[in-house]
């Protein structure tokens, strides 16, 4: 980085900027194990708040948490041919344990479809046993060759939902419902707007009938696949003999879904909102929403201001009891550090509101609130401090979503674009391009080879252009669908 204070700018080197923000804001650090990361308390605090919000949303839709083993018999992966082909290059395999060679190697969990559906087969006898709606919070291992903190690591944390249903339509409804849950969370809590839609066959999950995705635009105009939901059809049910006695008699195979998001979301939050001064966190996910920085010059002033800060904090907590869990406040009472240095540190860490509070403010019965998102300052009365802070936090949350959505739309092209112009765009500033696709895998592959851009989704109706594209971006033949093309992480 340039020096001890300033971060590399996004414009100068987005990748270096991202790594510096993650490290300097103490979200994560590199592990002694190549390709793995240590999630530090600042980063884990964000992940915890993501977990809590999502877990509540899962349970509100009828899902229950469970836990399945980290180790999966190697033979399980081979039971579903497309699945093993998709994951074989990424698996870590245990061949020895307890000083002896294992009779059957064990795969370190890259995903849990196989072991979970083997258990579902044990538990299900009748249609009355369905649906099964299970989620687990776990770690997984995928042996990635090129890694980056939060975005792609050998081991990462995630949740994976797995369900079994009587009919295809029930499974389809489940897969779409959970995509909606993810979209609501990403926009409502992360202030990160997403486009939802279906993946092409080339991009779908290995072994799935259909894959649906939430795609977000980062500040370098690349796409981030933020979450996926899969209708798995009956492929895994047939592989693991997951059958049930149908209501009308006879045996039928269950229909499965799986869906997941991971700690990649923390990286998405960084790249969606942060600036050249450091991290910016949407209030709903901030471990600390407001930091009070008392200002003083002498020991007497210090004692006076710390006492006053405690009283202000108590006012905030008294107000907070009307809406439990809403305000998370910290007083920076460290001695020997100048206020300016504290401001810099809390700005780097992305705390949504900083309260500057000195002797003159105390005389005026006020404090100064500083927004992290736009650095706007305004004095507020200590008599209404709770209401003012809560209102400002809600406004920041809303404004961050609006700003991210406007940036995405500004960098999206929804009108006709020639393939040559498309190539120039993908090799330059990038962005989302809504254009026609003929449905040919050949066109899809050639575009990826020539530009590194892929079809992120065939967008859902609410995201489609008002006028459907008539021709394919690549070959010029009649378009069978509109596609969102972009380079991606």
Overview of this structure, please?
- The chain has 489 residues and is of the alpha+beta class.
- It has three domains: 14-273, Bira Bifunctional Protein, Domain 2 (BirA Bifunctional Protein, domain 2); 283-405, Rossmann fold (3-Layer(aba) Sandwich), CATH 3.40.50.800; 412-486, Translation Initiation Factor IF3.
- Helices cover 35% and strands 26% of the residues.
- The chain contains 14 helices and 23 strands.
- The strands form five sheets. The protein has an eleven-stranded mixed β-sheet with strand order 3-7-8-14-11-10-9-22-23-21-20, with helices on both faces. Strands 16-15-17-18-19 form a five-stranded mixed β-sheet, with helices on both faces.
- A hairpin with a 2-residue loop joins strand 5 and strand 6 (100-108).
- The chain is globular, with a radius of gyration of 25 Å.
- The mean pLDDT is 95.
């Amino acid at each position: 980085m340039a020096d001890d204070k300033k971060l590399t700018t996004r414009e100068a080197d987005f990748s270096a900027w991202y790594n510096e923000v993650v490290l300097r804001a103490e979200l994560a650090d590199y592990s002694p194990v190549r390709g793995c990361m240590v999630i530090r308390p600042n980063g884990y605090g964000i992940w915890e708040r993501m977990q809590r919000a999502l877990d509540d949303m899962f349970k509100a839709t009828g899902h229950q948490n469970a836990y399945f083993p980290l180790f999966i018999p190697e033979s399980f992966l081979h039971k579903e041919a497309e699945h093993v082909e998709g994951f074989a290059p990424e698996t870590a395999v245990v061949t020895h344990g307890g000083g002896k060679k294992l009779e059957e190697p064990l795969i370190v969990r890259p995903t849990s479809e196989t072991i979970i559906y083997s258990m579902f087969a044990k538990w299900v006898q009748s249609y009355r046993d369905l649906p099964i709606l299970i989620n687990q919070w776990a770690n997984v291992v995928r042996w990635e060759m090129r890694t980056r903190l939060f975005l792609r690591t050998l081991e990462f944390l995630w949740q994976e939902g797995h369900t079994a249903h009587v009919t295809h339509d029930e499974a389809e409804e489940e897969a779409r419902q959970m995509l909606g849950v993810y979209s609501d969370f990403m926009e409502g809590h992360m202030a990160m707007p997403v486009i939802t839609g279906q993946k092409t066959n080339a991009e779908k999950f290995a072994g799935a009938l259909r894959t649906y995705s939430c795609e977000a635009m980062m500040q370098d105009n690349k796409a981030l696949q933020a979450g996926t939901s899969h209708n798995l059809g009956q492929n895994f049910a047939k592989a693991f003999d997951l059958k049930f006695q149908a209501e009308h008699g006879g045996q039928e195979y269950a229909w499965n879904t799986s869906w997941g998001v991971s700690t990649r979301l923390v990286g998405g939050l960084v790249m969606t909102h942060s600036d050249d001064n450091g991290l910016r966190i949407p209030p709903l996910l901030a471990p600390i929403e407001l930091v009070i920085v008392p200002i003083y010059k002498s020991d007497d002033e210090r004692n006076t201001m710390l006492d006053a800060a405690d009283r202000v904090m108590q006012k905030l907590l008294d107000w907070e009891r009307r809406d439990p869990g809403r305000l998370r406040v910290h007083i920076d009472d460290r001695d020997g550090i100048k206020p300016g240095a504290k401001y810099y540190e809390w700005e780097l860490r992305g705390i949504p509101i900083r309260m500057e509070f000195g002797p003159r403010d105390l005389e005026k019965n006020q404090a100064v609130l500083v927004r992290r998102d736009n650095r706007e300052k305004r004095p507020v009365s200590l008599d209404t401090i709770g209401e003012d802070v809560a209102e400002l936090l809600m406004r920041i949350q809303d404004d961050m979503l609006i700003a991210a959505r406007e940036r995405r739309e500004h960098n999206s092209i929804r009108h006709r674009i020639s393939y040559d112009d498309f190539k120039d765009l993908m090799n330059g500033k990038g962005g989302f391009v809504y254009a026609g696709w003929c449905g040919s895998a050949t066109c899809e592959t050639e575009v990826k080879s020539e530009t590194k851009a892929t079809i992120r989704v065939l967008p859902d109706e609410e995201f489609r252009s008002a006028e459907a594209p008539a021709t394919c971006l690549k070959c010029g033949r009649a378009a069978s669908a509109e596609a969102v093309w972009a380079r991606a992480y």
